[in-house]
Predict the structure.
Amino acid sequence: MADQEYEDLIVKYKERIKSEFGDQAANPTNPSSKITSVEYTDFKKELYPGHYSLYEKACNFSQNILKLKLPQKQKDKLQKHLDICHLNTTPSGVIALSMLLPLAIVFLGSFISFAIFNMMFFVMFFLVAGFLMVFALQKVPEFMANSWRMKASNQMVQSVFYLVTYMRHTSNLERAIEFAGSHLNPPLSLDFRKILWDTETERYPNIRESADSYLQTWKEWNKDFVEAFHLIEASLLEPSEDRRLSLLDKSLDVILDGTYENMLQYAHSLKSPMTMLNMLGIILPILGLVILPLVVSFMSGPESSAIRMAIYISMLYNVSLPIGVYYLGRVILSKRPAGYGHEDIAKHNKGVKKYQNVLIPITKTFQIAINPMFFALTMLAVTMLIGFSPIIFHTLNPAFEIQDEDGNYQMLGYVCPPEYATCEDDIKVGPYGIGASLLSLVVVSGLGVSLGLYFSLRSKNVIKIRQNTNKLEDEFSSALFQLGNRLGDGLPAEIAFGKVSEAMKGTTSGDFFSLASHNITRLGMGLEEALFNSKVGAVVQFPSKVIESSMKVLIESSKKGPMAAAEALLSMSRYIKEIHRVEERLKDLMGEIIGSMKAQVAFLTPAIAGIVVGITSMISTVLTKLSAQLTEFASDGASAGYSGMLTIFGIGIPTFHFQIIVGVYIVQLAYILTVLANGIENGSDKLAERYSLGKALINGTLLYCFIAGVVMILFNAFAGSILMNTF
């Protein structure tokens, strides 16, 4: 009977272990197999980026097809990157994918290009692209690890702040890591919870060994964070309270000073790569635009040569160059050290998510939320229809044309190919007219403005909430100082809130404490509910992790008495002030570089490109009309010399197509440079990135279209007068 009860007990606990840790834990046939908790797996699925899991599946699938044995050095290097961003795949899977995917793209792309389109250019393009993809895909884990590292390093000052804040009143490392993990956002919150889960699953015997193992991944990248964490651990061994608090203060000073010094070195090292990016990605390509139409215009051959050249230029300017600029930008961002940046409050705050939509009030209590994508797609569809109307009109009616009395200025401007003296309307190519060229600007403006409108509407309301929260955070150090003094005088926290709200009346901090005091006195709530009530809580109305953690520390420390709460708040006041001091120093440090990049996006690049396109339009108009005149003279037998000159000229690229290629490149540059500037300044701050993209895309695109349109009109009028006097 006892043996049966024992067997039943074993089965019962095996089933429990299986449900919590999986089959491997319940049946440990492979002692080296990795055991993870269901809680950790579910947490990872909830917060893990979707493209990471897709990449994992692709690598694991490739590994099943192609079995590879890698050198140990390469394997260790890739495994380090995979461990940092928690990718559940193997180095051999990464290399297998880097070989199979380019091979498939080269084969399919070359087959389609040769068999269907009969274009050897694309065959060579896909061969070169596939060759480069092999090396690029092998770098993907490194880029993912750098992205993960940048997001995490953006939170490291905050993480040390949370650890120190909690450890000041409760000297318990496990509780402090749990407190920090609950207040941080991914990815660092995932790392901190992984430290706890590795301890709970007995992968490590205690929390310190688990934390020390995690810190090994940051020794190469952020020694200041490792040193600060070790100082926090050392405070646990100090018998003297003053010495313990001194070590905690020292740990925050270490991470703050180290952050500033690392960013200082990074700012000094940015000059050379930014110059290279500016020259290779912006200046040289835009200057090259001037010569490209001349090259095409002097190419003799059938009309398809101009179309093919337009495709080649598009592949260069709209595919190859943006990828190259983006790659250089990612390399620059990968070297960014740990900094201090904000986070997207809408991503982790359900109450703020609705403000990512366009809110249309119907009644005082009811609003309709419309996704900004609807407005952006509507604008894009309308502008594309207007912008491509010259091609639509010609397709529907090849004889359709709008022109002046002399025929010098045409809306569509379809012309005969150079191999024909005269031709039917359906054989003509174009559009070369000034009207079509101006309408092509609508295509570019529609693309840039619709993208900018989407990002602007998606971030406009949320950024206002964060700006109000930032005002509160700026004042919060002095507010906490006053609250700490009130608590130090022996006042209960409930009364102290009312006193501070009166003293800071008219400020954002005063509004915060007034709301909390109102909830206590008018609604009869306790202190915790007045702050954290899901509907009317003061913290809910001001979504800030710093404020939330401060109030949680207040509640935790209040359990030990008003003096403990006062000391905790006074120390937090100093910490917040120090963090903001370093943040302002970092902004000053990066101000010159960021200002230069923003000026490049906002004015220099659109202005230069607009002028170049306007000049190119004039050159294309002159050469096209000159070619037409020479064709006419040669056909009339006016002079044998004209027929010889015809071999010099081919048909030029229509300004309509050329301008769209350049305009799309300007939109791509504005997007890439804005993301790069935001990454350098704010790290992984998606809200600031969307807000900056909204302004940069709209302003830069409209400026480019305005300058290009004005220069087109002026230079084409000038060219028209010259041609009328010449012929």
The longest helix spans residues 562-636. Residues 151-269 form one domain.
